[in-house]
Amino acid sequence: MGHNLDLPAAAPAFLQRTGWDAAKMTEFSADAAFRRYFRLARPVGAGGKETAILMHAPNPSERSEWFVEMAEEIRARGMSGPAIYAKDMKHGLILLEDLGTAQYFLHLQSCAVEQEHELYAAATDVLVALHAEPMPARLGSVEIDHYSDARMVKEAALLLDWHWPELAGTEAPPELRESYAAAWQAVLPVGHYADDRMVQLDYHSPNLMWLPQRDGARRVGILDFQDAMRGAAAYDLVSLLQDARRDVADGVEAAMIARYLAAADLDEEAFRASYAVMGAQRAARILGVFVRLWRRDAKPGYLQHVPRLWAHLDTNLMHPALQPLRAWFDDNLPRSMRREFDPVR
């Protein structure tokens, strides 16, 4: 193992205990959080190779314990979460199964429309399986929080915290924040339908892997779920189908909603209303997060997705259940105002 990878001093001993100390190590990914990932490769058999992933999550907010418990829960429900080979929670080190390099996000850039339907159908079937039973309030030593109104309103307010100043040239005044929160409080009760299911929070193409050698819904490898909660069944489906980072092919969203509803024992009208509310909340949250990544963390690449997120938000606001929130946006953040967004200022 090299010594220039800025890993904790405990890493060499951890890898030695697990038999991976002589493996070639390559850092291969960085994301919006502070986790780092390394692919380990060691020879096996006659010219073969075996791989694993070392995850380093040094910050307590990276929730390594949640990652381990959720991976095991996803696997217990028959889906392809990564197997956990070894862990050192004190130093934020986890050795896990390598689910390959066929990331949905990259694979979908070049595949035919027919295969896009296949990939989204498999990912939708994963959610049907994971939502078949309620999400427990505790997994091992980890408490699984409920996705509460208070948290949803706070997250949606990231739009005012970070995006509003770029549009208005000033901080959002208290009365605007109050009216915004009130509009969300008016619509969130509709969102809490089937409100005891697994919510992975970021179940979308960058966090899914295509594993065609496996069967059925197990062809979807699942990553990045340590922020999971108990909440509305619609949340992860809207996360998948209203992807913040790519345009889903025409017809896929409608087909997958119909597929999910055909397999789940849910009221269609209530589910679709919840889907619109969760989609609006997610879009508002990420509109704030992506501007924050630019302004605070010097990651401007996320700004390219801002128009797509506004389009998602507008689509969801058209549902009748969101009329109070739609009125707030019409009065305070109309489309004409959003066109003033200039990231080079």
How far is it from the N-terminal to the C-terminal residue, by CA?
A: 44 Å
Rg, please?
21 Å
Determine the number of helices (DSSP H or I, runs of at least 4 residues). 13
Side by side, the strands of the main sheet go 1-2-3-5-4
Strand content: 5-15%
Shape: globular
Describe this structure in words.
With 345 residues, the chain is α+β, with helices and mostly antiparallel strands. The protein has 2 domains: 11-96, Phosphorylase Kinase, domain 1 (2-Layer Sandwich); 104-338, Alpha-Beta Complex (Aminoglycoside 3'-phosphotransferase, Chain: A, domain 2). The chain is built from 13 helices and 11 strands. The protein has a 5-stranded antiparallel β-sheet with strand order 1-2-3-5-4, with helices on both faces. Helix 4 packs antiparallel against helix 8. The longest helix is centred in the C-terminal third of the chain and has 28 residues, at 268-295. The termini are far apart.
Summarize this entry quickly.
The chain is an alpha+beta fold and 345 residues long.
